[in-house]
Amino acid sequence: MTKIIAMLSKAEKTKQFILETAMPLYNEKGVAGVTIDDILAATKLTKGALYGHFDGKDDLSLQVIDYSLDKVSQRIRSAVSTKKTVKAKIWAFIDFYKDPIDTLIPGGCPIFNTAVETDDNYPWLKKKVAKVLRQGQEELTALLQSGINNGEFTPELDPANFAFKLVASIEGATVMCRAMEVTKPMLALVKSLKAELARYEK
User: Fold this and answer.
1) Residues 55-98: pLDDT tens digits?
2) Which end of the chain is flanked by fewer CB atoms within 10 Å, N or C?
3) Domain containing 83 — which CATH number?
4) What is the radius of gyration, based on Cα positions, of the chain?
5) Which is it for the CA torsion 67, 70, 74, 75, positive or negative?
6) pTM for this prediction
7) Which residues of 64-73 are buried (b: 16+ CB within 10 A; e: fewer)?
8) For 95-125, how does the pLDDT look when each residue is reduced to its tens digit (9 = 90+)?
9) To 5 degrees, how large is the angle CA 183–CA 187–CA 134?
10) Is 115 a member of any domain?
């Protein structure tokens, strides 16, 4: 039994290594752009070893995207959860994106990248990204609403609209800044979003 557990543990470590190694490739090249040969070259594994963990390219793609979306979502939640006030939590969310060049996963935000690529091309991934986006919007909306409820913000703040504006502005700015290879506009946007939220403080 111990030997079996040890073998499973090694297998899981190998699978995680593949996911970690493939993640930036998918984020930079997209699902359509990444080939099995790319993964083999990066991992230095044989095709047989790779397919011992995944049932083909589609299964690999699905699990890599799953892994990357979960990694970013969990890192954001972790950054937000350390703060005590709603304002500080929202600021932590905004600050998470303040460097559009040096992102958590090379290639930019995997949520936005995958959303753009999957539009009408990969319906099986489109639903997954939509779920992540909806969940993120709902969490931000609920957080802002709690700020109104506890007296941090005035009722004039529209939680759903502001949550959408936050995500849309930040994701769009990330793409533009990466294309132009600049960070200054993002820093200006971060300052502007914080100032707008501050106007609703009591």
Assistant:
1) 888 899 989 999 999 999 999 999 999 999 999 999 999 999 99
2) N
3) 1.10.357.10
4) 20
5) positive
6) 0.84
7) bbebbbebbb
8) 999 999 988 888 888 888 888 877 677 787 8
9) 100
10) yes
